[in-house]
TrEMBL record:
GO cellular component labels: plasma membrane
Source species: Rikenella microfusus
GO MF term (any one): transmembrane transporter activity
Gene giving rise to this polypeptide: gadC
Pfam families according to UniProt: AA_permease_2 (PF13520)
Regions that span the bilayer: 12-31, 43-67, 88-116, 131-149, 161-182, 206-227, 239-262, 282-311, 341-362, 368-391, 411-432, 444-465
Key words, A-Z: Cell membrane, Membrane, Transmembrane, Transmembrane helix, Transport
Protein name, UniProt field: Glutamate/gamma-aminobutyrate antiporter
Its membrane topology: Multi-pass membrane protein
Location of this chain's protein in the cell: Cell membrane
Hydrolase as UniProt keyword: no
Gene3D superfamilies tied to this protein: Amino acid/polyamine transporter I (1.20.1740.10)
Length: 505
């Protein structure tokens, strides 16, 4: 996304930034996937936090502060290190990943709306109906798109309310319900014989666990606020660790809360969060609240999708105006919103939604698209981690208001290397077909993931090769890269990879 990190008079407190981190990252839709692992789910959450969540936040903070006055986000970060071609790949992956992600999260929203009714059997049947799910997925998405076309004012209002009502409050209630349930004699449905440490010999079961990395995705967006914190070198890491701790606690305790009331064999990736709430409300004799919870969760989905509809599309639009996308994709409405990109994005989401017709079940569709988004997003993250390390050597004298390690590059190598290796591990595991997914052949699983990922990765390179001087908008404000500006005395600037330097001309 467009990077606008600038120091302002107003400074965020440590706790405010920590809560902002939580709001940006936490989503409840993925809890059922990990609830099937019982006690060992805590291991996966902690492992992913250590090797991915914290490294992502710290590396993004250094890069955001380093280029606080320059637009481009991950395009800038990766482009400065590896050239504009690779930078364009990074921003393109961020945009396309979010586009493919919409049907998966909206499937969860459709299930939430199905439980607004008071007839449990009817609600569960409706939630499993592919035609109903398709209609609701497209309806919510296009509502979010039309709100985005109204400008950031509308997006900000809906997103702020939705994050609190649809994510943070329900997460707290789920954990409180679990505590009340188990302390008042409720029957524990979780298999307590499982160990905290998982059986790593069961390789095929690790694929769902690898998707936990995407649960933590989005923390890099908070890097743009690094300069809005007083004494960022000390307080930003503190906010990151507090936010990460709260995030992990919500995920761990929320997952346990689901596992307490739903046997692992009955857990559904798309329905179990609502079923879990419904079971708790029956136990507490508060069945009237089931539709209220369902509406809140559906509103939270709308708010989350709205944030992402308005975000990555704005990033690719900003970069595209500098000559990386044809003029058609640079058109805006009278409010300056990237209308054509939003319409094309909507067409892709609609097409993906229609795949419900050919997929064996809603759950299989949900899982295979989720895995594809994991693959694409992890490629972007690996580029980001590698770029942070490369820039320490290409731009060693560049000011870094926030720096990982006071002196030398050793700590960055450790943090960035940990994040890169963790992302690579999750990337590899994402190709393994989980045994819990029925109705999809191995050929279809690998075909969709490999061919889908290959097409997406190849597309920005094709667009880059076809670009023309006429594509550049004279009003575009992407600042030159470091190799395009006159070298300062004693500056140590490494040459850009061959073939990339002319891109911004």
């Amino acid at each position: 996304m467009a990077n606008s990190t600038k120091s302002t008079a107003f400074k965020l407190s440590v706790m405010t930034l920590a809560i902002m981190n939580v709001a940006a990252v936490v989503s409840l839709r993925g809890l059922p996937a990990e609830a099937t692992y019982g006690l060992s789910s805590a291991f996966y959450y902690l492992f992913a936090a250590i090797v991915f969540l914290i490294p992502t936040a710290l590396v993004a903070a250094e890069l955001a502060a380093m280029f606080s006055s320059k637009q481009g986000g991950v395009f800038r970060w990766v482009g400065e290190a590896m050239g504009t071609r690779t930078g364009f790949l990074a921003i393109f992956l961020q945009w396309v990943e979010s586009t493919i992600w919409y049907p998966t999260v909206l499937t969860f929203g459709a299930v939430a709306i199905a439980f607004i009714g008071m007839n449990e059997v009817h609600d569960m049947g409706l939630a499993s109906n592919k035609l109903y799910t398709l209609i609701v997925v497209l309806a919510i998405y296009w509502i979010a798109t039309f709100i985005s076309l109204k400008g950031l004012g509308w997006v900000g209002k809906v997103s702020k309310i939705g994050a609190m009502v649809g994510t943070i409050i329900p997460a707290g209630l789920l954990i409180v319900f679990g505590i009340i349930y188990i302390s008042t004699g409720g029957q524990n449905q979780m298999d307590m014989s499982q160990s905290f440490f998982p059986d790593l010999s069961k390789f095929d079961n690790l694929v769902l666990a690898s998707s936990i990395f995407l649960f933590y995705a989005g923390m890099e967006m908070m890097g743009v606020h690094v300069m809005d914190v007083k004494n960022p070198g000390k307080n930003y890491p503190k906010a990151i660790f507090i936010g990460a701790l709260i995030t992990v606690l919500i995920f761990v305790l929320g997952t346990f809360a689901l596992g307490l009331v739903i046997p692992a064999k009955d857990i559904s990736l798309t329905q179990s969060l609502l079923v879990g709430f419904d079971n708790y409300l029956h136990y507490l004799h508060l069945t009237w609240a089931t539709p209220v919870i369902a509406i809140a969760l559906a509103f939270g989905v709308l708010a989350g999708v709205l944030t992402w509809v308005a975000g990555p599309s704005k990033g690719i639009f900003t970069v595209g105006r500098s000559g990386y996308l044809p003029p058609f994709f640079q058109k805006t409405n009278k409010l300056g919103v990237q209308k054509n990109i939003l319409y094309v994005q909507g067409g892709v989401v609609t097409l993906l939604g229609l795949l419900f017709v050919v997929m064996p079940s809603v759950q299989s569709f949900y899982q295979i698209l989720s895995q594809l988004t994991v693959l694409l997003y992890l490629i972007m993250y690996m580029l980001m981690f590698a770029s942070a390390i490369v820039l320490r050597y290409k731009m060693p004298k560049e000011q870094r208001p926030f720096r990982i390690g006071k002196g030398g590059n050793g700590l960055l190598w450790f943090v960035g290397g940990l994040g890169f290796c963790g992302s690579l591990l999750a990337f590899i595991l994402s190709f393994v077909k989980p045994g819990s997914i029925a109705g999809i052949s191995n050929g279809m699983w690998f075909g969709v993931l490999i061919i889908g990922a290959a097409i997406v990765v190849a597309t920005p390179f094709v667009i880059y090769a076809m670009r023309k001087p006429s594509w550049k908008d004279p009003a575009a404000q992407i600042e030159p890269f470091h190799w395009e500006t006159p070298a300062k005395p004693d500056a140590q600037v490494a040459p850009v990879p061959e073939g990339d330097a002319p891109a911004a001309k």
